[in-house]
Write a structure and sequence with these properties.
- The chain is an alpha/beta fold and 183 residues long.
- The protein has one domain: LarA, C-terminal domain (2-enoyl-CoA Hydratase, Chain A, domain 1, Alpha-Beta Complex), CATH 3.90.226.
- 40% of the residues lie in helices and 22% in strands.
- The strands form two sheets. A six-stranded parallel β-sheet has the order 1-7-3-4-5-6, with helices on both faces. Strands 2-8 form a two-stranded parallel ribbon.
- Helix 3 links the parallel strand 3 and strand 4.
- Helix 3 runs parallel beside helix 6, helix 4 packs across helix 6 and helix 5 packs across helix 6.
- The longest helix is centred in the last third of the chain and has 12 residues.
Length: 183
């Protein structure tokens, strides 16, 4: 395993202090920043950022959308998000329940845009390029309905990813993926 970089979601650590001051003067209290990375990683381990960003999968999807940018095509994103309130949004849940495969969600968004459903389609679009492992408290069958692989612990998910990619995998950690954008 080659650890590329650990990215801190706290704005000050991610940006130089002048940029930090400028952004906080425009958006006081917000912690969002991008980071530059040299190459996509084989495995990205990302946290949604804790409560409330991981209260449900609907909210945690923001971390998927950000972190996927750091994963090479064919790589694996391991998302850590508790999701104690389940899938979340009603439309999101309906869209997931109605789909037989990720492509169903993508086709549906092209013919019938619906707020909430758009996040289900966004996850499906990410799955065209990478695998997603989800470490959460969600029941296994619920996670499988979203077409991602369920895990109950990070070591279990990480070991599976290493087994699939190989011991020389390049790994990137993004502890606050809902607030950090790889660019």
């Amino acid at each position: 395993m080659v650890l590329l970089k650990v990215i801190y979601g706290i704005l000050y650590h991610s940006c130089n202090h002048h940029l930090y001051d400028l952004i906080l003067s425009i958006f006081p209290g917000n912690y969002f920043c991008g980071f530059l990375f040299a190459e996509p990683a084989d495995i990205v381990i990302a946290s949604a950022g804790g409560f409330p960003k991981d209260i449900n999968l609907y909210q945690a999807q923001k971390a998927i959308d950000n972190a996927r940018r750091a994963v090479r095509p064919g790589g694996i994103l391991i998302l850590v998000a508790a999701c104690p309130e389940g899938l979340g949004d009603e439309a999101f849940t309906r869209w997931i329940a109605a789909a037989q495969k990720p492509e169903d969600l993508i086709a549906r968004i092209h013919t019938n845009f619906e707020l909430g459903g758009h996040k289900a389609a966004a996850i499906a679009m990410v799955l065209k390029d990478i695998q997603i492992y989800l470490v959460s408290s969600l029941p296994e069958q619920v996670v499988q309905q979203v077409f991602v692989e369920p895990f109950t612990s990070l070591p279990e998910a990480y070991n599976r990813a290493l087994g699939e990619i190989g011991p020389e995998a390049k790994v990137l950690l993004i502890p606050q993926a809902g607030s950090v954008l790889p660019v």
